[in-house]
Specification:
Layout: H1 2-13, H2 22-44, H3 76-83, E1 92-94, H4 95-106, H5 110-124, E2 125-126, E3 131-133, H6 184-195, H7 203-220, E4 225-226, H8 230-245, H9 258-265, E5 267-269, E6 275-277, H10 295-308, E7 314-316, E8 323-325, H11 334-347, H12 357-374, H13 387-398
Helix pairs in contact: 1-11, 1-13, 2-10, 4-5, 5-12, 6-7, 7-8, 8-10
Pfam family, one: Peroxidase_2
Family: Belongs to the chloroperoxidase family.
GO molecular function: metal ion binding; peroxidase activity
Length: about 400
């Protein structure tokens, strides 16, 4: 309900968003051109382009399986980074860890990694220590240590929310229990879709996968929830499979094939043709993408996924096949979607985390101050509604007073 109120307020605010700037339009057109190019190249010459690229992992980052107290969770990329020491191997991370680790391992743009880390801290971590767990709850993230649960639970990325969300590629919805462990049957399903594209996990295959998982959640999960912030992030995770897990520069001939993708997902093929889950790792002879992939590109691809497959924001109303769509007219261009995501984040901090109020006020002020500059390029109007203001806004909308 809290997030629905925020989104309704955002809808009223952005019913007539500013037109996308030429820079963003040009970026999206370039992405579509590269998508066509990569499909043609992958069919004819499935060899990664390695000239000038960085091989990962290097000698300083060998694979080590996680120990019994090391946190691992729903994000295969973060798990792999931790298993190679690009992130702290214990799985307890800061914003600086995420920014440096994702840049080194995947060439993720700094604005995108900073944005994702800030969400992780705000929703799943500790606003004071600025730490969060890439897996489950852990006292090592908290200012109060083992006493933290007295005030509120810091659930880590396993916590059902922005990162761990319904309609994941290889994780079950939270309604079914384990929402953070790779499910071999879902990996096999993803592989079967890639098989329709010559065994390549390209963007078109991932769009088909997103649509299928969306439909499956509507049909099987009575609590299916697909709204900003979690909806766009789970869509973005499908695009990341192609953009970050491919061997080499994807737009210039890189290969998003089984040899690359299976290692990142920790999917080991058994003699009987089924899969089993093993610790995630970088593949052998693997090269990261040649150019950074940042926030503008990520939101552009999320919009492309949503619009090309007609994925409506909304939720099931407590029963399967009871999906109620949320009409968000602003989410028709990159700027509109970006501003909705920003506003949902600002209006919903903090969520599950509670701290002494004076420290929280300072932390929230600092966090919002960090979020805003990341969205400067999208021309979002000033917005920093409190939860109370958002509820007032939704009440006015419901009563026809706005």
């Amino acid at each position: 309900m809290k997030l629905l109120a925020i989104l309704a307020f955002a809808y009223a605010t952005y019913a007539f968003p500013a037109a996308s700037r030429s820079k963003l339009t040009e970026t999206l057109n370039e992405r579509r051109t590269l998508n066509d190019l990569r499909i043609r190249q992958s069919d004819s010459d499935p060899v990664a382009v390695v000239d000038g690229l960085t091989q990962i992992p290097d000698d300083d980052h060998p694979f080590m399986a996680p120990g019994p107290t090391d946190q691992r969770g729903p994000c295969p990329g973060l798990n792999a980074l931790a298993n190679h020491g690009y992130l702290p191997r214990n799985g307890i991370v800061t914003q600086a860890d995420i920014v440096s680790g994702t840049a080194a391992g995947f060439n993720m743009g700094g604005d995108l990694s900073e944005f994702l880390a800030l969400i992780g801290i705000a929703y799943d971590g500790d606003l004071i220590t600025e730490k969060f767990s890439i897996g489950g709850p852990d006292s090592r993230t908290s200012l109060l240590g083992s006493l933290q649960n007295i005030l509120g639970v810091e659930g880590g990325l396993d916590h059902h929310g922005p990162f761990e969300a319904d309609a994941s590629a290889t994780r079950d919805d939270a309604f079914f229990g384990d929402d953070h462990t790779m499910q071999p049957n879902l990996y096999a399903q993803m592989k079967s879709i890639a098989a329709q594209y010559g065994g390549l996990y390209n963007l078109d295959a991932m769009k088909d996968l997103q649509l299928l998982r969306y439909q499956q959640s509507i049909e099987m999960n009575p609590t299916f929830y697909f709204m900003p912030v979690s909806g766009p992030l789970i869509v973005g995770a499908k695009a990341f499979i192609s953009e970050f897990f491919s061997n080499g520069t994807y737009g210039a001939g890189g290969v998003p094939n089984e040899a690359s993708i299976s290692a990142f997902f920790g999917a080991e093929l058994l003699p009987n043709g089924s899969f089993t889950a093993v610790p995630e790792r970088f593949p052998d002879n693997w090269y990261r993408r040649g150019t950074p992939f940042g926030l503008v590109e990520a939101i552009g691809q999320i919009l492309d996924f949503i619009s090309s497959k007609n994925l409506a924001f909304g939720a099931n109303a407590g029963a399967v096949n009871s999906f109620v769509p949320l009409d968000l007219a602003a989410a028709t261009n990159v700027n509109g979607l970006a501003c909705i995501i920003r506003d949902a984040i600002q209006g919903n901090i903090p969520s599950s985390v509670e701290q002494p109020i004076d420290l929280v006020e300072q932390a929230i002020s600092s966090l919002v101050g960090l979020v805003d500059p990341l969205f400067d390029d999208f021309g979002c109007p000033a917005f920093n509604a409190s939860e109370t203001q958002a509820y007032n806004a939704i009440n006015q909308i419901n009563s026809g007073n706005s």
